[in-house]
Amino acid sequence: xxxxxxxxxxxxxxxxxxxxxxxxxxxxxxxxxxxxxxxxxxxxxxxxxxxxxxxxxxxxxxxxxxxxxxxxxxxxxxxxxxxxxxxxxxxxxxxxxxxxxxxxxxxxxxxxxxxxxxxxxxxxxxxxxxxxxxxxxxxxxxxxxxxxxxxxxxxxxxxxxxxxxxxxxxxxxxxxxxxxxxxxxxxxxxxxxxxxxxxxxxxxxxxxxxxxxxxxxxxxxxxxxxxxxxxxxxxxxxxxxxxxxxxxxxxxxxxxxxxxxxxxxxxxxxxxxxxxxxxxxxxxxxxxxxxxxxxxxxxxxxxxxxxxxxxxxxxxxxxxxxxxxxxxxxxxxxxxxxxxxxxxxxxxxxxxxxxxxxxxxxxxxxxxxxxxxxxxxxxxxxxxxxxxxxxxxxxxxxxxxxxxxxxxxxxxxxxxxxxxxxxxxxxxxxxx
Length: 432
Description:
single chain; 432 residues; mainly alpha; 0% strand; disordered N terminus; disordered C terminus; Pentatricopeptide repeat
């Protein structure tokens, strides 16, 4: 019984031994080769997995070293390194690897094209992106949904919206992600007309917008001319229940009404959001201040800090502008103290400019000049603010000297601002 159990094992050893030791027979030699010769594809596959593991763990240099030592590579190897270098902020190196891959006559896969086109879009390599598009067309990948979406994004970033729309219309199918890509692009281009047209087209294509779609559409309508259309979108998202479940849409509505100057609608949209989830504190503070309701704005400002929300530069500039309009230097100084405490006095040209303007409009030209002199780098905005402050305080000679300084240092001049302030000086030019 025991010998019967050992028989298969003995047969295996005997057979293998004969194949490996009998060198007289050509058949035996052929069998030996098939048993002992390694498969190069298995080696590449195994190394690719190691390269992938290095990249995912953040060891890009180790992945690159392993890549450099590989005797043979395939398209997957290059795809891993291209996407890896892009992920860790080396788009030029990623593009170099792509050129190396093409020079070695390795044909791109769909993943290659998607990655490389996205790199060209994000890094601004538009000429290279157009060249990649030519390869997409020559290799027959033009109808691939993901590659087509990447190309649409490339052309939109180049500002070629007509060409992007043409590519979009030529896609054999369009999923929700592709639609959102177009909505985002027109939102960033401030083209609410196209956003609303795409929304209508989505309905005809039977694609239902999601929360991200509505965020793009609402934000794209932040213009007084599209207040009516934005309200219609608001009604639509309420009907679909998005406001209650998507905090980003709720905050986008606050931003929308604030940008359109509709205080009542902004307040209503703000009040339905739980205070700890409000993103648009700065928007509602701004619209309160713009309407002259500084006490309401300050109350929100204090509540905002209570909930641990950091005021933005926008809110601080709004308060400084309010102090300028009302010549309330006491309030302006309080905001200045807060600006210093938050570290915005040297970090934002907008705050520095607003402070210079505030002190000038409050007839404290010494403080206005002091703020200007503390600016680490002179900019057109700060120089123009000091010029208008000097004009407001009647220091015409200093204005002309400041003008000469701006010319000597090559700083641009805002002609509209100067003309507007100059005209307020009781036709000074005519009286000289």
